[in-house]
Amino acid sequence: MLLPDRYGRSVQPDPELPSKLKPSRDRRQDRPNAPREKTFREAPAARPKSGDNKNAGGAAAKPELPPRSTAPLPSERAPIILEVLPNDDYALIDSGSGRKLEQYGPYRIVRPEGQAIWQPALSEKEWSNVDAVFTGDTDEEGMGRWRFPRSALGETWPMRHDGIDYLGRFTSFRHVGVFPEQASHWEHMAGLIAAARRPVKVLNLFGYTGLASLVAARAGAEVTHVDASKKAVGWARENQEMARLSDKPIRWIVEDAMKFAEREERRGNGYDIVLFDPPAFGRGPKGEVWQLFDDLPRLAALCRAILTPKPLAVVLTAYSIRASFFSIHALMRDTFAGMGGTVESGELIIREKAAGRALSTSLFSRWVAT
């Protein structure tokens, strides 16, 4: 099954683009790992028995999950609010009336934001003083869905995160190649890698344009970056060059995340940190369906199954779902039963500059070893 990208769109590999990097967020590379101890395999991902992979109608049946573990659950911390404050690289200037006004380096950009149900704090004059506005024109594609009030801008522009250079990009689905709210996770991950004082392997599933992979690689990790979209992996490889991190060990892999994780389990490969940011819904090229509430439990179990004997963390982020963070919090605690550590869950927010309001962007849950 080929999964869609993080935005819920069906994604098929683009035959015109070469397989491009997604920092060990090859989300994505195939790196062998040391054998895992059985104590970390108490809740392995179930695989269908030979001959049992079809249902009565002849359609492929999904593997059954193992029964719920009776082992002790990890400790818990919830709710936790992780926030990103305005800085020189990025700032949420204002928001309201279903829009947000952002500053990306030298550019001011207006995009839709369904969470912003309040009124803007700044005047319409401030909102008009921008470089790019996403119009969502359904008759256009690519940059045609953007309006440039001052002067025409190229598809990409140089951006920076915490000293890492990368390319911002005007896409036809309103995104610009980075999710600033994820910076809280990136900082936490970099700290874990530095504190480990040993070689660390990071798997970045649904890696998109690779900022998390670049942060992990810069911190000293060996990264595998995996994404089903050749185009996104290509962007990620460009970002690696832009960041002058081409000498860092990042394996870029264009593949369905579930299939990649299943193969890594069969091969006995393991990772110390796993990041996964799956879409809410999508379809594969042969009519396969990814439904987050149906398929997330199996993928979470696979993420546990491919951990090394001394793992550091597993981080799940969920966008655009109608659920409380308690849903994925309970799932992660059950999945990592018997492994100790702590499951921390809550929301990722961006703190607004104009009025100090908090814009919620996504839910998260992460298991962290003690």
Topology record:
Layout (H helix, E strand, L loop, with lengths): L74 E10 L5 E7 L2 E6 L2 E6 L11 H5 L3 E3 L11 E2 L8 E6 L2 E6 L13 H14 L4 E5 L5 H8 L3 E6 L2 H13 L7 E5 L2 H11 L5 E4 L4 E3 L5 E3 H14 L7 E6 L6 H11 L6 E10 L6 E11 L2
Parallel strand pairs: 1-16, 4-5, 9-10, 9-12, 10-11, 12-15
Antiparallel strand pairs: 2-3, 3-4, 5-6, 7-8, 13-14, 15-17, 16-17
Helix pairs in contact: 2-3, 5-6
Short description:
The strands form four sheets. An eight-stranded mixed β-sheet has the order 1-16-17-15-12-9-10-11, sandwiched between helices. The chain has a five-stranded mixed β-sheet with strand order 2-3-4-5-6, with no helix packed on it. The two termini are 35 Å apart.
List descriptors:
370 residues; alpha/beta; Rossmann fold; Immunoglobulin-like; 2 domains; eight-stranded mixed beta sheet; globular
